[in-house]
């Protein structure tokens, strides 16, 4: 793989790293960072593929945005996470954007599970989910339950993007 092909990947991973640091420190992903990433993603797609590349970037953006938007609407993630996934999609074609979102969701689930495990709250959380299934109603997490705390989902988006980038470029 040439440096010209690697540059957009390195750029995307750098932008995601800045987003992770911001998310961990302030629980916010700056809109300026996302807008810069969207512009750079679409520009790199246009540079490498012309009009077809631009179309791939726009469709990738829409796939990333569209797959995460329902999770935001249901209260499962913040708007910044949705915008960040759209930014990731702008660097990818629609198919890869779908896979990046899929692996980001898997990474988020694993991170959440590891947080519950680290805090010793697996039984408590699964008991609450079991009660919700039986009662067919939502039960809010306890005040001390990790499931009710904000989660920096940018970490999962970075991990999912790393995974798909590895298989796209190195296998």
From TrEMBL:
Prepilin type IV endopeptidase peptidase domain location: 10-112
Top-level taxonomic group: Bacteria
InterPro entries for this protein: Prepilin_IV_endopep_pep, Prepilin_peptidase/N-MTase
Pfam families xref list: Peptidase_A24
Keywords: Membrane, Transmembrane, Transmembrane helix
PANTHER family named in the record: PREPILIN LEADER PEPTIDASE_N-METHYLTRANSFERASE-RELATED, TYPE 4 PREPILIN-LIKE PROTEINS LEADER PEPTIDE-PROCESSING ENZYME
Residues spanning the membrane: 6-24, 31-48, 54-75, 96-118, 151-170
Descriptive protein name: Prepilin peptidase
Family: Belongs to the peptidase A24 family.
